Amino acid sequence: MDVNGDVTPTTSGFASTLTNSVPTSPTTASETPASNATFGSETDESNTGYHVPHTDADVISLSRQLDSGSAVTNSSRHNSLISRFSGHSISSRCIPGSPMPVERPGVASGPRAPPAAPSLPEDGTTFNIGSYDKFEKPKARRSFFSFKKKVTMENLLSWTKDPISSPMLRTNDKKRRKEAIELFKFILIYMGDKRSRIKDKERDSVLHEIIGRTWSTQQLRDELFVQLCRQTTSNKNKKSLHSGWEVMCSALSFFPPSSMFHSYLEGYVYRHLSAKPITDVNKADPVHVYAQYCTKRLEQMRISGPKKGQKKPSLEEVEHARELPFNPSMFGDTLRDVFEMQLDKYPDSRVPWILSTLAKQVLELNAKGTEGIFRVPGDIDEVNNLKLRIDRFELGELRDPHIPASLLKLWFRELLDPVIPPEFYDRCIRCAGERNEVLAIVDELPDLNRNVLCYIIHFLQQFTPATVSYYTKMDINNLAMVWAPNCLRCPYDDPTVLFENTRKEMTFVRALVKELDTSQWDGIDL
Prior knowledge:
By secondary structure, the protein is an all-alpha fold. It has helices at residues 56-66, 153-156, 174-191, 203-214, 218-231, 238-252, 259-270, 286-304, 315-323, 335-341, 353-364, 380-390, 402-414, 425-430, 435-444, 447-461, 466-472, 476-487, 495-515, and strands spanning 141-142, 148-149. The protein has a two-stranded antiparallel sheet.
């Protein structure tokens, strides 16, 4: 497709080829986020031994290798951002690239919740996108009377129906400058601000082109988000405005902004959130729904990094991403919300359909005879394809048990709140080796959390007999090492605490697998 709206058939469907880019995200000295790896890369586990580690260094190193793709930034230890959006407070002391402390009304804040902070100013001065220091300097333009007219930052960041002559963000790369200008033309076409021969049913191909062009280049991604912020500011055409937010949501389904621009974009989106909780997305202001989705995605990517995969998003994936704000995914939401999505289809189920379905597939594909199950990652692109089908309550044909096993771990990691709620975390660590206390904690969990935890433990117990671990090379110690990060989520940022708690988290999960009576789940979907 060219910028005039003509669809040009290509082999790949994209105007640019994939390059290895390294998306930036906040890091600490003690952790390297998954997003710092090349797209599609996962921790190399081929040389990982099966012995039980004896030192703390061994524990942390091997734990992160075994739980493929689960290494995250310390910001993942934050309480997950909103499932309801009223009453939030954001510290005015936040700086670009740093996590935004957020309080969730009606939810226990946990040991690391920040004190109450002043709300974001009405004028947006805290995260005013106009204060971002990477903008191309506005150039004066010559008027009809031949004197130069000053271009203000306000004008630069307000909707326009005209193409731009230079990028929004500074760059000395001529190729990037040209790509940025062309990108803006595609945005104008998709939003309906530029006439083209594209029909409504072909608009997804334009969105596909936009996502494809920005998929592999970090600087172009930031340029895209800035252009979208501009086109959704002072835009009085509702159809155009909603289309701009649609592009924003679709882009955030695949990649985040840079760490430098992350907080500015969060601040921009935050100012468009609804003052009241959204109970029915079909009746709410679409902008509020889009802003809610963008806020959730920005927080999720602080936790898990960008979507991984060596292939650029397909047209089908882009179409699916476009629908997500009004048709939520089973990934990245709360257990309660995921459970409610299936009530019409599976009203009698005691656990989420996705959990029982993936667990059953793992076993049916001879996982008990597969070496390295849960340790060896499945092909990331196949996992992404399965994720797409699962969101539509479809499964398709599977042959490799590593695919559903990897997606099952991913579902647990991306839950908005961990299966063991944060308020139980300290107690789990204190009594990690005490059988009675461990079992008492399980009894005190909310009903749905307890059902999910018991179900997954019952599932893991199928792999503990010596006759099974002989083939899988995954005994109870290795299973606990892989699954501990998926069940417990440390709410602290202190590297020392993270270091010390890793072994205790493993001990707690090992005690669950060894001691928890899950006989009530015998014969149920397993």
